[in-house]
Specification:
The chain is mainly alpha-helical and 335 residues long. It is 66% helix and 0% strand.
Length: 335
C-alpha cells in the first residue's frame, strides 16, 4: 500500500486516512462503507489541506482519487455523497470536471463544496465566487450571492446590483444589504443607465417592498430617492418583467399603511403617495400585460409566487389605479 504523505493522518484526521485507503484499494463495498461513515461537513475544511500534500503522490494515485470523486458525484443518489464527490474533484484540473462542479453548484446546497473544489488547495476567492455566481441559477446563485455580500470590489458590487435581486426567493433575505452596501441610490443617479441595471433595480425595489421579514422600504432612508430615480429611468427605458415587478411591488406597498411604516418616520409625508401615483400611471401602458404573459409562458424563469403577485397587483392597478383604490379602501374602513 502506498504510504500516506507524511503527517496527513495527524493533520486532517482519521477520515482522510480511510479515504486514502479506499482510493488505493477501491471496491463497491469499500466505497459504500466509506460513504456511510463520512460526514461531508469536514470536507471543505480538510480536503484542501489534504490536496496541498498531494504533490508528493504519484499521478496515478491522484487520478484514482479524481475518478472516485467523479463517479460519486455523477452516480450517487444521496446528496451527502455528492458533496463528497464534489470535494474530491478539487484534485482535478480537468476543464470537464470543473464544468461538472459548476453544474452541480446550481443546487444551493452544493455551492459551499463547489467553491472549495474549484479553489483546489487554496481558499475560495471573491473572483471565483463571482464566476460561479454567473454560472449558477436559482438557489445556487442565491447561495453564492450570500458569500459576496459586504464586498468592496466595485466590479462585484456592480454585478450584485444587476443580478443579486434576481437570485430567486432567497434574495428576499438579503435585498436590503445589497441596496445599501452597493449604493443603489448612487448607481441610479445618472442621466442614463444600461438595461441590465434597470432590470436589477426593478427586482431590488420589488424585494424591498415585499421582503419576507417585513418590507425594508419602510426603514430605508434613501428609499424615496431610489424609487424616484428608478421611475425616471422606467419612463425612458425598455420594459421588462423585473421592471414591472418593481412598479407593482411599490404600488402594493404604498397602498398598505402598516404600524411599522407609521412608526418608522423615514419617508417624508406624502412621498409614498406621490410616487405611487407616478408608478400607477406608468402601469397604464399596454405593454405590461404582454410582458407578464410572456414571463408566465417561460417555464421556471420566475417563481410562481412572484408571477402571481405581480399579475394580481398589475390587474388591480389597471382596473382601479392609484389613488382611487386607496380612496375606496378608506371609504370601506379598511385602513
Amino acid at each position: 500500500e502506498p504510504p500516506l504523505a507524511e503527517g496527513v493522518g495527524d493533520q486532517v484526521g482519521d477520515h482522510d486516512v480511510a479515504l486514502t485507503r479506499v482510493i488505493d484499494h477501491p471496491s463497491t463495498s469499500s466505497v459504500a462503507a466509506l460513504l456511510s461513515g463520512l460526514d461531508p461537513m469536514w470536507l471543505p475544511e480538510t480536503l484542501p489541506r489534504l490536496a496541498a500534500r498531494l504533490t508528493d503522490w504519484p499521478d496515478e494515485r491522484r487520478e484514482r482519487a479524481v475518478r472516485l470523486g467523479r463517479w460519486i458525484a455523477t452516480r450517487s443518489t444521496r446528496r451527502d455523497d455528492v458533496k463528497i464527490g464534489i470535494s474530491l474533484l478539487a484534485l482535478s484540473s480537468d476543464v470537464a470536471d470543473q464544468e461538472l462542479v459548476r453544474t452541480l453548484a446550481r443546487h444551493g446546497e452544493f455551492v459551499h463544496y463547489a467553491l472549495h473544489a474549484l479553489a483546489g488547495a487554496g481558499p475560495p476567492t471573491e473572483d471565483l465566487a463571482l464566476d460561479l455566481a454567473r454560472h449558477a441559477r436559482g438557489s445556487g446563485r442565491a447561495a453564492v450571492v450570500m458569500t459576496l455580500l459586504g464586498t468592496e470590489d466595485p466590479e462585484i458590487q456592480a454585478w450584485l446590483l444587476r443580478e443579486g435581486g434576481r437570485a430567486g426567493c432567497a434574495a428576499l433575505e438579503f435585498g436590503q444589504q445589497i441596496v445599501e452596501s452597493c449604493n443603489l441610490a448612487a448607481a441610479l443617479d445618472a442621466p442614463g443607465i444600461e438595461d441590465a441595471l434597470l432590470r436589477g433595480a426593478g427586482a431590488l425595489v420589488d424585494i424591498l417592498c415585499v421582503e419576507s421579514r417585513g418590507p425594508s422600504m419602510c426603514r430605508l432612508e434613501e428609499g424615496p430617492a431610489i424609487v424616484e430615480r428608478f421611475l425616471g429611468h422606467v419612463e425612458r427605458g425598455p420594459p421588462s418583467f423585473d421592471v414591472c415587478a418593481g412598479l407593482t411591488g411599490f404600488c402594493d406597498w404604498a397602498g398598505r399603511t402598516t404600524w411599522e411604516r407609521q412608526r418608522a418616520h423615514v419617508w417624508p409625508p406624502g412621498a409614498a403617495s406621490r410616487l405611487a401615483r407616478r408608478a400607477a400611471r406608468l402601469l397604464q401602458a399596454p405593454h405590461w400585460e404582454e410582458i407578464i404573459e410572456r414571463a408566465s409562458a417561460v417555464e421556471r424563469a420566475y417563481s410562481s409566487d412572484r408571477l402571481a403577485r405581480v399579475k394580481k397587483t398589475y390587474t388591480t392597478e389597471r382596473d382601479c389605479p392609484w389613488p382611487w383604490r386607496r380612496v375606496i379602501d378608506l371609504l370601506r374602513g379598511r385602513h
